[in-house]
């Protein structure tokens, strides 16, 4: 059974950027694509007549998006699903049977589209499968790179494993980033010394070595590069991911509270959206 890639469409240019990305991903991964349009009823009293009209409008939009997808010479099997409900809740339900959920985004502090709006971050937090937010425009440098942050956490290890699999499957370079900052709290300035810097550099190298251990055996042809920077993690990942094929970030687990929120790093890079960003959860 082939994997299913779900892509949220809403008739916008941002939604179509996500659709094109999803079609390319599906072709490379031999997956089928399902277009989903959710009509938001959260602010309305839903009557049978409203629901029927909403579904009719959604199905009309999906017919247009299906036609657009076929114009892209997509080889994947493509289906469509019209839903009336709350976008976050409905996409969380859909994510249970998906291998990947793809949404369109907008550079700089908001996500575009009347259907998904600023809810993109929340959808990424509650999804049961990895989520990719695709900017409306982006450039991939040659050679292509998949960028991932390393910090020793379980979430980062899961992100590295996913990033390595994606990079190996697409022939891209896996670029690992370790970011650290000197102490800035009052009274700790004396720690900012050459010895301290060297200690941090040594710990960073060890973290990168541990974080990528075993990848060479799993993916013999995978090229891995490393970068150690003195920057806040969000800034470091944003700058490293410019012109990248994909930026992969980990997220905390799915506890009752944690599952409703993205970590600060995931949230920060989704705000900037330097390239397509994949959010993966702890297993």
From TrEMBL:
Which stretches make up the UspA domain? Answer: 1-135, 145-281
Q: InterPro entries annotated for this entry?
A: Rossmann-like_a/b/a_fold, Universal_stress_UspA, UspA
* CDD domains assigned: USP-like
Pfam family membership, one: Usp
Q: Where is the signal peptide?
A: none
Similarity comment: Belongs to the universal stress protein A family.
Specify the protein name. Answer: Nucleotide-binding universal stress UspA family protein
Which species is this UniProt entry from?
Canibacter oris
Q: Name the lineage.
A: Bacteria, Bacillati, Actinomycetota, Actinomycetes, Micrococcales
